[in-house]
User: Which sequence fits this backbone?
């Protein structure tokens, strides 16, 4: 999808595909001819194509190394690095660390940042450890903006490796690397902000610590995950603006349980959209507003308790929560947006705590928890378009007095719906509200509605005339 519009799938003709293939072959043929003539750039390009198996050439590491070495001999910087890399990793050539260091040093001396970084790692971690050389190479690469080198340089300053200990400098280099996406630097930066003893020239700041831990954790940094959980506890780390929850960044609780922190008043648009592993969520009493698509596509969510201060449930808020069976909804709700529960095919109960109903058969009272029934809160005035479309497990719907309008296809394809009560407050209904409700056998309407044209509209929607019952 792109801006809400489908992108058409364009089929290419055989002639177009053959032309593209011919173009690729011609391009490779040109590279091969130029490489054989001694063109270093063509030799390097051909090496890359064989290394990756691109442009119709097979992956062939021996051929890749052959062309890298030819270009390297002519002084091609990237080819020199790749030649050394192949010697180091035994890619198309026998492993030879001395030759790897020789070729990569040639590239590093020509300001190739990745080569400088490689040498920094080599001199800091290999048997040829030399922390002074390591620092020098990390510094050279870091000054060219290499994030890995910047992170290592932060370590050097933090622990005094190859340079005098300087925690302020450590913080500066960690921050530069973290802002470029280096996960280890992000984790260390979180640690710096979370520490009272690091003295890196910045005050303790738990919010910034959580932010950087979360960034690192999202890249799979397990240490950052542990620190984040320790810092924020069960629930997760959220992006917020004031009292508005913008989105879940990363969950920290076991078993895909999320606890929204107290004080949040608005759950923003798409805050948890497509969180397909989310099973359980706790919404605090401070929340008053659940935004558009807030839980759209949370297909493992089975139940939800909406706290008593919520007044607004946005458009498509729970759409396509395919495993959602039960919603506890307070009478405080005044607005339920279009498609709010559309596609919740397992939804059986919308419960309002403490509300009792009378069984039409034996006249006994029951609490809603005992029946598969959806109850619309009494302060709701509009049931929007497609609100319960496709809720195939709903059997009974009770609309409390206060609803004035029922939107188009509001209950379409609720195949198990057998009974619905429409109050006297309803003055307008749209088209096809019960289309596809083939098992609907009781539609309770207020006395006098049979003369209003309302019944005729229901019949046009496919409701059987004998199912329509006037309630005194």
Assistant:
């Amino acid at each position: 999808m792109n801006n809400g519009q489908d992108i058409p799938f364009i089929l290419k003709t055989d002639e177009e595909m053959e032309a593209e293939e011919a173009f690729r072959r011609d391009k490779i043929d040109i590279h091969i001819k130029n490489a054989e003539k001694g063109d270093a750039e063509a030799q390097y390009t051909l090496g890359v194509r064989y290394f990756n198996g691109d442009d119709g050439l097979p992956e062939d590491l021996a051929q890749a190394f052959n062309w890298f070495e030819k270009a390297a001999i002519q002084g091609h910087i990237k080819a020199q690095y790749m030649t050394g890399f192949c010697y180091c990793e035994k890619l198309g050539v026998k492993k030879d660390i001395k030759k790897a260091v020789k070729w990569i040093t040639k590239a590093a001396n020509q300001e190739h940042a990745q080569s400088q970084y490689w040498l920094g790692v080599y001199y800091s971690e290999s048997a040829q450890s030399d922390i002074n050389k390591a620092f020098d190479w990390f510094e050279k690469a870091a000054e060219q903006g290499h994030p890995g080198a910047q992170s290592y340089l932060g370590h050097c300053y933090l622990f005094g490796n190859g340079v005098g200990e300087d925690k302020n400098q450590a913080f500066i280099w960690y921050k530069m690397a973290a802002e470029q996406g280096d996960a280890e630097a992000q984790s260390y930066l979180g640690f710096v902000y979370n520490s009272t003893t690091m003295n890196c020239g910045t005050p303790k700041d738990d919010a910034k610590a959580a932010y950087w831990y979360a960034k690192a954790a999202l890249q799979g940094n397990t240490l950052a995950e542990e620190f984040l959980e320790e810092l924020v506890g069960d629930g997760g780390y959220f992006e917020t603006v004031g009292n508005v929850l913008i989105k879940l960044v990363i969950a920290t609780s076991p078993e895909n349980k999320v606890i929204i922190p107290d004080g949040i008043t608005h759950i923003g648009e798409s805050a948890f959209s497509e969180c397909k592993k989310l099973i359980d969520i706790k919404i605090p009493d401070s929340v008053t507003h659940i935004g558009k698509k807030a839980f759209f596509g949370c297909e493992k969510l089975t139940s939800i308790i909406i706290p008593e201060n919520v007044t607004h449930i946005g458009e498509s808020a729970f759409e396509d929560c395919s495993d959602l069976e039960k919603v506890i909804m307070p009478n405080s709700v005044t607005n339920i947006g279009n498609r709010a529960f559309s596609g919740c095919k397992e939804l059986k109960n919308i419960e309002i705590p403490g509300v009792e109903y009378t069984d039409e058969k034996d006249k006994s009272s029951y609490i809603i928890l005992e029946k598969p029934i959806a109850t619309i809160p009494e302060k709701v005035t509009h049931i929007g378009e497609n609100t319960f479309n496709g809720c195939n497990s709903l059997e009974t719907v009770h609309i409390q007095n206060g609803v004035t309008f029922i939107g188009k296809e509001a209950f379409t394809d609720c195949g198990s719906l057998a009974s619905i009560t429409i109050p006297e407050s309803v003055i307008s209904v749209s088209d096809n509200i019960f289309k596809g409700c083939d098992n609907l056998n009781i539609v309770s309407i207020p006395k006098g509605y049979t003369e209003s044209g309302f019944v005729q509209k229901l019949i046009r929607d496919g409701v059987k005339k004998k199912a329509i019952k006037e309630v005194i």
User: Anything to note?
Assistant: The first strand starts at residue 236 and ends at 241. DSSP finds 13 helices and 21 strands in the chain.
